[in-house]
Amino acid sequence: MLDISTDNAAVAERLKKAIADLPYSKSEVADRLGVSPQAVTGWESTGRIGKKSLAGLALMSGRSVHYFLTGEQEPPQGDWGAILGRLPGNLAVIREESSTMLPRLNPGDSALYDPEDRIPEDGRLFVVVAAGLGNESPTVKRCVELGGDTFFDALNPASDPAWSKPRKMEDSHHPITILGRVRWIGSWEG
């Protein structure tokens, strides 16, 4: 845990304001960051937040890590906050639970995706929802353009019968909705 003991109350207030300014409920913020709603409430009251959660909240809110820690708007050059500040502020987080995208994504990996970038592009990874396949949870799939049509596929199709072959985006029985383009993938090494 990142504990800013010098002024946790001020950090807590900045966290609380940033969360309140998001267009998501506290529960949705928790879900997007892969934590419980109680954890979010704890951040707001104590000012204590894990590094991974702080980085994710910075990306979601368009604020820098430096801002949350210091209250200063502009981070110093070379600071991690400056790096985060160059990324779009509207990124969302998904945790991939399946093995359909091995070897690119392992079960438990997280991906940041841009909900405003929904234009299919051949070879790119997207967070999608496929209606009527039994599990309508968002998942990461690769976009494939074939003969003027757009398909999505799994890199490891043997792991899920629903994705054993590429699925057409405009399928009348199982349409695919793009939630956003994947911009970054990360995993925790144990």
Automatic annotation (TrEMBL):
Family annotation (CDD domains): HTH_XRE, Peptidase_S24_S26
InterPro entries in the cross-refs: Cro/C1-type_HTH, Lambda_DNA-bd_dom_sf, LexA/Signal_pep-like_sf
SUPFAM superfamilies: lambda repressor-like DNA-binding domains, LexA/Signal peptidase
Domain of life: Bacteria
Protein name from the UniProt record: Uncharacterized protein
Organism: Lysobacter panacisoli
